[in-house]
Amino acid sequence: MKEYFTQEQIQKEINKIYIEEDDFVLEGEFIEGEGTHYIITGIAVIENERYHDFKIEFNLIELPKEETIPFIMDIDWDWYDYLC
Known about the structure:
mainly beta
């Protein structure tokens, strides 16, 4: 599955991920994956610098009810890793 964030989701900032311990923000463009394993690709903002095509691989703590962005983004992550 590969799904792009809609304009409505972007306006609601569903596409933004903030990782406090790394002082890092990812503005997601799309999500790929299935089950509990996904990769979100977007623009990373690190120390006021923007990095395009930045990827975060993550695993959800449970299966989403549906493989759609709202359901996936509403579940906590078991783990994550930066793919650069």
